[in-house]
Fold:
Amino acid sequence: MSVRIGVPSKGRLMEKTFDWFAGRGITLGRAGSDREYAGFVEGIDNVELILLSASEIPREMAAGRIHLGVTGTDLVREKLSGWQSVVETVEVLGFGHADLVLAVPACWVDVNTLDDLDGAAAAFRQAHGFRMRIATKYHRLTRDFLRDNGVADYQLVDSQGATEGTVKNETAEAIADITSTGNTLRANHLKTLDDGLILQSQATLFRAHRAACDAQEAATLEALLARLRTG
Amino acid sequence: MTDRAAIRAEAERLLGLFQEAGAVPVDTRVLQPAEVLLDLYGEDIRARAYITSDALRGEQMLRPDFTVPVVQMHMAHGAEPACYTYAGEVFRRQEDDPDRANEYFQAGFEIFDRAAPEAADARVFSVIYGMLQPCGLHAATGDIGILMAAVEGLRTTERRKRALRRHIWRPKRFHDLLERFSGAKPMPESRAALLTQADPLDGAAPQIGLRSRAEIEARIAALHEDAAAPPISSEEVALLDAVTGVRDSADRALRHLQGIAADMPSIAAAVARLDRRLAALEAAGIATGGLDFEGSYGRTQMEYYDGFVFGFYAEGRADMPPVATGGRYDALTRQLGAGREIPAVGGVIRPGLLVELGGGA
Structure:
């Protein structure tokens, strides 16, 4: 049987991942047409490429259905409970940089720190009769961060896309979202809090602890990892 | 895996003992409206409770405890005074530790009584104490009411007291706030800069979102007021630290706290309540020299206790959650009572842990 490696199925993340493997003498590619999510691997035998949505790769690793996976640290930490016991970091890949940050309207001149956010949240709840809404798709990371920093009187509202627009649309008062340059935040009249960095993420190659290996797969995996680590 | 039938039988046995102690059995729905609990506990409860939903009733929570629905039931149509017992399963989502149970039985005992609250405290504690005595557990106690009284009595602005009160159950935040209010830690640079500006909103970004310009201005005014207020004195901070730092047997802790009250008269009434409670416990045959008292006990659990608090622990089993917990929750009845309130105290035992310890029936 073969070693299964999960890679994001589209976009720059996929291309950059292919480049990174190519730099180590292993060619990954998509078979057939652009619409087909089948992959091929050249340069090493008995390795199978599985093309998946980046957000599904943590789950597939946790289930042991793939031995290795490339995805963002943000997704691993958001989706996997006790992530260190489920996967280990093999290599950070040096691309796909993104920060998960807390951002508030730039017009909130009185709110620059988490302490301010907590104070503003208390007053907001009194004035409006409900807890200040923070839109995000990173519920667990955001909640843990706010709890560790003692922020109260907020609620998370789910936002799976266009999160920066939720404040203007008045479906949220603040957001927790991924940003790489901050341009989208600025364009939407938002600013990050000085101490509002929840997580710095980048594309990372992970190894799944629970993926079973027979003798041949174990040998293939060791050979593959040796080549990837000497890149 | 402990036998569920054995745990259920143990829960029934405890329910029977609580009834013998004078409680009326009650039951509650498993599905509770999520909004009530979210408003009470905040967003953290989402990490601790299972939430489900339907299109008709919206978000529902699998009951994470009995206390809230029992209080609601009593506030809606309970006669006074009242004493209730219940036994059933509660559900707690576990995100980090796979060894912690996500559903388990609780058997509980709650008293709603306006007369002699310390006697009610002692009654709840001694009933549970008596039921657990064969198991050789270790009891820890505390009194959040003393800390609340200490905050109330600080010679500082109402706004600062409100901020500290709001974070009593978040000790780290409480500590940070106290450091800043006492001048031990400078205000963040961004705030200092804001306060030097004559008109901070001049040239500000476009106004977006529900939080209005008036709200922003009001908070800036509040920050100015706070910056102008004198710091909380180091003497008062030291007294507050002394209150939270008490760790001793309950009888000796009382003497410490009486000593602190001499310099901090605001806690005298709360310390007198502790005195009456310990006397009531002694009268019930419990040696208070054998109970632990911690000034900060009960502050890190996400609970609603605002007076007497207690827990029973299996010695040498740091891995095991407390076998029983409880306390006074007067404020909860006010929050859920829609304009009414009644002093209330209660506690729960986890029959599953008793079975595991082999100390059950």
